[in-house]
Amino acid sequence: MADGFTDRFSTPDRRFGRVLLTFMALAFVALIAAAATIGWNTLRNQDYTAEVVHTLDVRQAIADVQVQLEQSETARRGYVLSGKPLFRTAFARTDGAIRPGLAQLTRLTADNPRQTARLSSIAVQFARLERLRAQSMALADAGALDVARRRFADDASVPTMRAIRYRLEAMASEEASLLVTRAERQRATTRLFFASLAVAAVLLGVVALLSLLVVFRNHRDLTGSRDALASLNDTLEDQVAERTADLSRANEEIQRFAYIVSHDLRSPLVNVMGFTSELAAAADPLAALVDRVEAERPDLLSDDARLAAREDLPEAIGFIRTSTQKMDRLINAILRLSREGRRIITPERIDPAALVDTIAGSIQHLLDARGVTLVVERPMPMLVTDRLALEQILSNLVENASKYLQPGRPGTITVSAREQRGRVIVAVADNGRGIDPRDHQRVFDLFRRSGAQDQPGEGIGLAHVRALAYRLGGTIDVESELGQGATFRLNLPAAYDQQDSKP
Amino acid sequence: MNAHQSVGIVMIEDDEGHARLIEKNIRRAGILNEIKHFTDGTQALHHLFDAPDGPARNGPALVLLDLNLPDMSGTDILVRIKAEGSPLKRTPVVVLTTTDDKVEIQRCYDLGCNVYITKPVNYESFATAIRQLGLFLSVIQVPEVEA
Hints:
heterodimer; A: alpha+beta; Heat Shock Protein 90; 3 domains; two-stranded antiparallel ribbon; 11 helices; B: alpha/beta; Rossmann fold; 5-stranded parallel β-sheet; 16% strand; globular
């Protein structure tokens, strides 16, 4: 599993991911720049369009003034020539429109100094023309058409008219050239707009592609991780089962080892003990012989022979016997422990209080002999566990409690139990001589004991108790101080479960 | 045991010391029959089935069998003796071993062993057990071996 994860996030792949993200960020920045360019371009385009419209307006205004000017001049000439009132009204209408037209033109071209200069010149010329026109119209009104016609031929109205015309044409041509440049500029910005748009489109495509890549990669990573997790999940149970099988195998191996070792140790021990007995039996006739020789022929008996037959032989045999007997007990203890580990647990519903009563009944004579009082606190929570194992544990603990008394203090043993989150804690408390805190772990080890060695025992009981507690899926510990009594706490699952059992 | 024909005792026991102690105590019970001792299974099987003076060819016998042998398990010998068609299938077999495992005891009886005795470690008990076995041997009838 771990290999899969390392592969997925290996260095080249990660570098590629970073490069990809950098490119994507750059592409986004470029896209934003393109958008800004487009925005700015659009604003400029608006300006240019406004300028073009303005130029067209100016041209329109110039054309209007030209038309009014020519029409009014035509009307004036018609009136002076014919005196018809039709021309008089036409003149009044068109002549009146010129000044407002010029004023509008002045307003429109205020930003252009050349046009303004031309306009002011036009204004001067037009003022003169207006005067001349007023004189000739007044003469015509008075009926002096001849005078008016003569005056017209003499006065400066024709050249003035021409001057105005020229200037207006100059203005028009200026506006025309302005229109050409402005239209060209507008087209340029439009081209730029489209170019920016194209660039933005390309960038958008790139960003989309990169995003797709990133998303795809993320998706692939996620899928990979999910698959790895799923397969890890699938194999987890198998792995646990495998480990458990390994542990059980190791445990069985140890059990078998203990069994074989202790079993095979017994075989030579049988010989040692057997031949020791044979030796002891053989020593008896020898001792009898020594006795007879001493009585009948004392001169034949040496001190060494007498000592050997009467003291050395029995002493040696005695030591061999006690040692082999002790060894036998130790081997039996190991055998019993290993056999206990192989025993099949049969859980059943048990009232610990009733069990303690049974135990008390079976060792009542011991308790009486030692002057110990046993108190069972009721009620106790029910337990589902192996009866024999629990009985052995509790009877060991009660027996120990009655055994190691504080001199001069009558023994009292209190057995209590309480339930705590699916566990039952059975406490066996005494007021005996207590256990040195340094020995609290040691007392549970095989062949280890604590305190004054004034009581018979091999240091097997508590090792057995702990092995049984483990077997039932529980634990045992002790709380004690020297001279203050001891409390052994057995912590068992309220209901035995095969899974809980520590191998 | 059968008076008209001497019944040989075949002792299969890998531990010399045990063998000696067993023999001593059997003798103390007043049994005077010949005791042949083998320390491994191969030799014992050869004697039982093939030797000219062995029980298969030459009269009835009683087998004292230890289960822990160097070259095979005592139960293998038991299987051979009690097998269907074996000339020795009615020969009494006394399993005498240190193992007191319940499963092992059951297995031996299932295979047809006649008596199963656990060697007591304590010598007094051991001696008593063997002597009682001797007394038992002195009264039991051993069948003839089929030709």
